Amino acid sequence: MAYLINTPLQTNTVYLDSVNCVARSPNFTYRLATPIRCPVALKILLSVENVTFRNTLPNVVDGKFSFIYDTLGLNGAPQTYTMPVPTGIYSMNSFKNLFNEFADVNIGAGLFVCKVDMTNFKFSFASTVPCQIINTDVYPTTIGRQIGVTYTDDNEQVFPISSVGSPAETIFMPRSFDWSGGQYVFLKMNSVTLNNINSLGNINDTLIRVPINCNIGYVVNYRPTDIIRFIIQRAEINEIQLRLEDQYNNVLSPDDLQVVMRVDFISPPEVDTTGEGTIDFYWGENQPTGVEQEDDEDIFGV
Question: Could you tell me the pTM of the whole model?
Answer without folding.
Answer: 0.76
